[in-house]
Amino acid sequence: MDFRVGQPAQYRVIPLGLDIDACPSTPGGLRHALGLAPETVLIGIVGRLCEVKNHAMALEAMAQLVEKATVHGGAVHLVVIGDGHLANELSAYARHLKIAEHVTFTGFRKDVLSLYEKLDIVALTSLNEGTPLTLIEAMGNGRPVAATEVGGVVDILGELQMTMNGFAVRAHGVTAPSRDTAAFAQSLQYLIERPMLRRQMGSRGHGFVRHAFSKDRLLRDMESLYRHGSHDIKVAIGLETGSRQ
Q1: Which residues, 6 or more positions from 227, have their beta carbon under 8 angstroms from its beta carbon?
Q2: The Glycosyl transferase family domain covers which part of the protein (predicted)?
Q3: What is the pLDDT of residues 148-178, one digit of tens each?
Q4: Is 185 exposed, middle or buried (CB count within 10 Å of its CB: 0-12, 13-18, 19+)?
């Protein structure tokens, strides 16, 4: 829709900037607390437990992964980090799907930034996103990601490598269409079976975030705006901060 508010030259958008090196590390950490074996693939999803985050889809995909792991061997665990009004409903749904022993709900965690490094894959199943802070934080910690193709997700997942079984393999992770649980589960399985690829995606994502979303880049952009910006600029900064609460 064209709102006819100003001209393109009158706007500047400054992307999010993070202090990437400020992510603390916790000895032992999440895996130790969950009592997981070293070979267990740990998938994490970070965000408010509300409708738009569509955690139900993550649980349904997890049910498919657990069934496959039971048949073919291997172990997988999902940790849901965050709180919200759907907490009890989602916990009940995990029991309904018979995967409760493979899912941990942590509730709200102040130390969320220290948890990423213990995850093998970071998932996002949102129905809508702006600039997904969770994925940027995950990549900043060298984690590969699996996400639905909504909002600004594809913009940060990097170049398309290939498509297969309804999902896409990209430079920094994999994506599947929104609400397509089968394709999302397939994309997670693809990453689970390829630990070397996960490390490569994590490394590329880390480099991308350091270049595109660092605190230093944000400060340079802000300085440039104030030094060289025109007085005709109507909207100086458009900054998507995201939320994981």
Answers
A1: none
A2: 34-205
A3: 999 999 999 999 999 999 999 999 999 999 9
A4: buried
What's the rounded mean pLDDT across residues 129-146? 92
Residue 23: strand pairing partners: none
User: What's 91's domain CATH number?
Assistant: 3.40.50.2000
User: 218 lies in a domain?
Assistant: no
Residue 87, domain extent: 23-210
Contacts of 156 (CB under 8 A, 6+ apart): 131, 132, 135, 136, 139, 172, 208, 212
Contact 174, 163 (CB under 8 A): no
Question: 79 forms bridges with which residues in the sheet?
Answer: 44, 104
Domain presence at residue 49: yes
